[in-house]
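Quick one:
INPUT:
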């Protein structure tokens, strides 16, 4: 693999602008099949910024699999015929705003990411820059204003932290000015994929809009670098509680030891493990899917750790039904006052 130093780039803008988006650019660094890459990126764009690229040891390492297009992404179209199985579009009263739960909405304000994850639940949208505009953002804010039952706004995308400071600040200001909005939450993968974006200036803007929570997204221990730790520290020092939403991915983290290491490393950088998600059945991602049994057995192993390290294991129901927790079966039987329980060290907790 060709080596280069991402530190040669001047700032986060420079890193994004020098991202790999074409097959020939990737071919200069990794031994990949150009024609295969081109077939995929016609439908699902590629973006790998120099920082995240530096974490890739080879195309099939846990980091590489998350970033490098795979022909399997376009081989499940006959298996998954619905491009939107979670019914986000149906639950969007206005463009790019999902109102699934009565008291909160998910508000998409960016169609761009610092790195286009190959397992993304919004593969149909991300990277298509015309999908989200100033007009759709203003329309979303107006909907939130007039819908008094909403008390929490989850700001998502794409990645909202890829917006410029001023634009993001204006969105937060407009939302915070709405009287019935109590909580603002940002979902971002930037501290993992482009930690250089987390500047003091950005943190100073974010600290103005408390109560503000940020959920980050790390999937593998190798993603927790010194740069990522510094980015999370900058946010935490601004008084922002940090949680992590990890996706269970075949060949990347569907292993108890890997997941234990990841959860412990997250706590060390002041990030509370929040969710482990069962991968959504989204077109172009089926090759990453694991079994529910795998996830439950991993959760069983995590319960031996400090409670700080233990997230919830969640599945998003198809058809827009929302998230439900998936729990190992510790209570095996009840007979009068006698309980049969499974210990976290037990194997085969799934019947």
């Amino acid at each position: 693999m060709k080596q280069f130093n991402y530190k040669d780039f001047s700032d986060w803008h420079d890193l994004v602008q020098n991202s790999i988006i074409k097959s020939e650019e990737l071919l200069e660094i990794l031994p990949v099949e150009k024609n295969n890459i081109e077939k995929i990126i016609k439908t699902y764009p590629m973006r790998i910024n120099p920082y995240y690229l530096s974490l890739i040891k080879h195309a099939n390492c846990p980091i590489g699999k998350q970033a490098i297009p795979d022909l399997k992404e376009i081989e499940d179209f006959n298996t998954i015929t619905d491009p939107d199985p979670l019914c986000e579009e149906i639950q969007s009263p206005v463009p790019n705003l999902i109102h699934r739960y009565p008291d909160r909405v998910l508000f998409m304000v960016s169609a761009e990411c610092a790195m286009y994850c190959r397992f993304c639940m919004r593969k149909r949208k991300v990277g298509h820059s015309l999908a989200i505009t100033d007009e759709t953002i203003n329309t979303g804010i107006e909907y939130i204003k007039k819908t008094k039952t909403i008390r929490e706004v989850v700001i998502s995308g794409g990645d909202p932290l890829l917006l410029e400071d001023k634009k993001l600040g204006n969105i937060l200001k407009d939302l915070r000015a709405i009287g019935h909005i109590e909580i603002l939450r940002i979902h971002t993968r930037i501290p993992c994929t482009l930690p250089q974006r987390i500047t003091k200036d950005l943190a100073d803007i974010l600290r103005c809009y408390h109560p503000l929570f940020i959920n980050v997204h790390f999937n593998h221990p190798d993603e927790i670098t010194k740069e990522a730790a510094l980015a999370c520290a900058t946010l935490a020092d601004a008084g922002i509680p940090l949680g992590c939403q990890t996706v269970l991915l075949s060949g990347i983290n569907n292993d108890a030891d890997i997941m234990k290491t990841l959860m412990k490393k997250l706590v060390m950088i002041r990030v509370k493990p929040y969710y482990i998600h069962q991968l959504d059945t989204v077109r172009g991602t089926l090759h990453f899917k694991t079994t529910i049994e795998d996830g439950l057995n991993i959760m069983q192993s995590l319960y031996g750790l400090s409670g700080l390290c233990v997230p919830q294991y969640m599945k998003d129901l198809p058809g827009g039904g929302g998230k439900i927790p998936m729990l190992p079966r510790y209570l095996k039987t009840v007979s009068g006052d006698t309980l049969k329980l499974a210990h976290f060290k037990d194997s085969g907790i799934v019947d």
